[in-house]
Every structure is written in C-alpha cells, then in structure tokens.
Amino acid sequence: MQKRGLATLKRPPIFKIHNDTIRTVDSLKYLGVIIDNRFNWTAHIDFLRSKMLNLIKNFISVSGPNWGVGASLLKHWYLSVIQPSILYGSAVWGGSFTVKNINSLFSIQRLALLKISKSYRTCPTNALNVFLGIPPLHVVAKGLYVKFQIWKLRKNGFVFIDINNLDKYIEINNIELKYKILDFPTTVVDCDFEVYTDGSGIDGNIGASVCIFKDNKYINLFQFKLSNFNSVFQAELAAINFAAGWAMDNNVSVNIFTDSLSSIEALKKSNSKSKYLNEIKNNMFNAVGSVGLSWVKAHAGIPGNELADQYAKDSAVNGNFLSMPAPYSYLKKFINKFILNNWQQHWEDSKSGNRVREFIPKVDCALLTHNRYLLFFISGHGPFPAYLQRFNNLESTNCVCGGLGDPDHFAFDCPLTSSLHFVKPSNLNKHLWFSNILKNRISL
C-alpha cells in the first residue's frame, strides 16, 4: 500500500545528455570506493570481505596452528599491509556506521585475527582484538575519518584544538625553487656573534633558548615557553629561526650552533610540506650570507651548548610565551588516543568476552598475547572438557579426576597437574596476574 504523500515510479527515471541515455545503477566504484544509492557504504563494506580473503592468502603459506612465523610478525604484517588496504578511503566512508556495518567489519577483521592468534574459531572477535592489541576496524576507520576532517577539511568542531592553531601541509609545487633547496654555510668567516640554541621538554612543558656569545663571552639570553601541544623538534627550529631573525634585525653576522641534527636536515630537505617549516626556510633564505648553521655534539662539554641546554629546560617553565602551530604529530597522538578511548568503551559495553575482561579490563595497542596456550586459558576456548562437551566432542564436562574440566581447574586445582599449578589470583588481581604471566616467559 502506498504511503500518503509519497509517490512511486513504475519504472526508474531515464536521464539523457545530448540524446545519450545515462544508465542508472544502484552502486558504482570510483577511485577504489564503492558508492551506493543510499550512501550507507554497505556495498563497499561487503566488497571488503573478498579483498580481505585475497590479502590473507599469504598467511596460509607462512603460518599454521602449530607452526610458522610468530604472532609478532603477523601482527606487524597486518598493521602495515592489510589494515591500510582495507581502510583505504575510510576518510570518506568511516564517519558513521550502522550495526550491520559494524558486524560486517568485525567478520572481515576476524579472518585475520584468527590467523594471527591461532585460536579456536569460536573465540569472540572483540576478545581477539584485545588479546592481540589490534583495535576493531570500525573504531580505526572512525579515527581516520576524524583526522581527515581536521587536517584536510579544517573542520573546527572538535574541542581538543582550535584549527587556527594547527599547522598545515602546503603543495610543494607552490613553493619557489629557491626556497625549496637551501645551501647555507656552516660558518661565516669573521662573524660578529656566536649563538647556541636548544629546545627541551620536561613533564609536558616545552621550552627553547638562544644564548649569544661574543669572543667566547656570554652576553645575552632569550628564553621561550611553547604550548604543551608543540614538540621539542619545533622548539629547536624556533630557536634557530629566532637567532637568524635576530641577526637580520640587528644587521650582524652570526654562527648558529645546535645539537639538533634533525633540524638542520629538515631545513635542507626539498620536499618539506609543513607550512611552519617552510616559513622558517624562507627566513633562513633571507639570512643567507649573514648566518652560518652547524651541528655540535650534545653533552660533550661545549660550554655554549651546555648553557643553552640548561636554559632550555628552565624556559619550559619560566620562558616568555611563544605561539606557534601544533604539529601534525600532535594530531596523530590525539587520534591514537581517540581510537583507544572508543575501543575501550566498545570493550566495556560488549556482551561477549566476559571471562577475558576479568583478566584484561583495559585495551592496549602494545599488548600481544604471543602464547597460544595462554590465549586458550584466558578465553576459555581451548582443549578443555567443559568447552569441548558443548560441541558434543566429549560426553562429559568433567576432568578424569572428577572435577569440572574448565581452564581454572587445570591451572589451579587438578591433582593431576599439581606440579604445573599457578598461584590462583583473587578476582581483583586477575589483571595483574595476567600481566605478570605475559611478561614472565619462564612461566609459559
């Protein structure tokens, strides 16, 4: 029955351009992403399953249930090759998911998680995520979507930072060639001043210092405190930039010494995309002829460098505030935290993996349960009578000693395995027990 106010068509509409009929379809593939007529990305997510099957074929040839490469290498393989391929275009389609989409992504990721963990096929997917330290695909996709919204589209609806305080990438083709490649001398002959610069970070505070010497005598100091979202690398660059600007403002020649080799290399790179870094390169270009820049070894007893290092630490707290944009690394750090928090919330809300949650209440991307048998024990999905009887593989759930044949029985209580028993943890200390067992390879 037709709903009131809604019209229905007996046939699809016909579109023509210059009398050429344009065929209508339910979905189309554009730049590797399948776009459907409802914009819910279901067709694309369904396509990802076949893509995953092709990507994990190589897993079969290098790893089996009881042989092959270890979980650490397989995890690295997954994170560096498979996941980026699966999440291609997630900056577009990762914004929102239906429950069906999330379940589909879980089933897709599960194919790889089972190969990496070598666990039983009945182990819950979200438990495998936690065991291996691999976040669910829909959580990672959402993080990549948010990063794209902030970094590329410059959306300002996120409370953690003002977009106006965030660095940006610029097109290299828009940079003049003379600014791309800097060829500044390491020293200027008969310079007026020697300048030592340094940057430092202490307890989340970032500072930079510029110490000016004349004839090896310390004569002046400039100290700067940066925002907490800035990096030590930026502080090093800021100090060099200030020293070059000071030389031009005072119409003098200086030799700048820094223990940050990465800063010098960044200034010499021809493919730097950071707007902030390119602004410094422009200043350095204008200072060529009056500024020399060279590297000195840190903590080698050079008085000027040691003094700059000391004042840089003090500047992190007491320096004059210097505003500069947050680097891309800060955004990446935020996105990683965003992914971790969303994953934690998903883990806490999950209705499966209750036993695993007792031992691993907090998710951690660095976690890797490398021992297959420990995974059996924590998940409860392993060669235990209480588990196997559920699938009619055994007639009884009991151990041969008469007790219930669950994982805890064999690890803590069974008289037949008494020589291999662990100390049974209390319910409150199960997470600490698991952490200690995982770190102590002798116990496995």
Describe the structure.
The chain is of the alpha/beta class. The protein folds into three domains: 27-152, no CATH class; 177-325, Nucleotidyltransferase, domain 5, CATH 3.30.420.10; 353-439, no CATH class. 44% of the residues lie in helices and 14% in strands. It has 18 helices and twelve strands. The strands form four sheets. The chain has a six-stranded mixed sheet. Strands 1-2 form a two-stranded antiparallel sheet. Strand 7 and strand 8 (205-214) form a beta hairpin. Helix 3 packs antiparallel against helix 5. The longest helix is centred in the last third of the chain and has 22 residues, at 328-349. The relative contact order is 0.10. The mean pLDDT is 91.
Number of helices: 18
Task: Supply the CATH class of the largest domain.
Answer: Alpha Beta
The helix content is 40-55%
The order of strands across the largest sheet is 11-10-7-8-9-12
* Helix-strand sequence: EEEEHHEEHHHHHHEEEHEHHEHEHHHHHH
- The count of β-strands is 12
State the shape: flat
Strand content: 5-15%
CATH topology name of the largest domain: Nucleotidyltransferase, domain 5
- Please outline the major beta sheet: 6 strands, mixed
Radius of gyration over alpha carbons? 30 Å
Classified in CATH, the superfamily of the largest domain is Ribonuclease H-like superfamily/Ribonuclease H
Q: Overall pLDDT, averaged?
A: 91
Q: Enumerate the spans where pLDDT stays under 50 for 5 or more consecutive residues.
A: none
Overall number of domains: 3
Specify the structural class. alpha/beta
Tell me the span between the first and last alpha carbons: 66 Å
The CATH architecture term of the largest domain is: 2-Layer Sandwich
Catalytic activity: Endonucleolytic cleavage to 5'-phosphomonoester
Keywords: Endonuclease, Hydrolase, Metal-binding, Nuclease
EC number: 3.1.26.4
GO molecular function: metal ion binding; nucleic acid binding; RNA-DNA hybrid ribonuclease activity
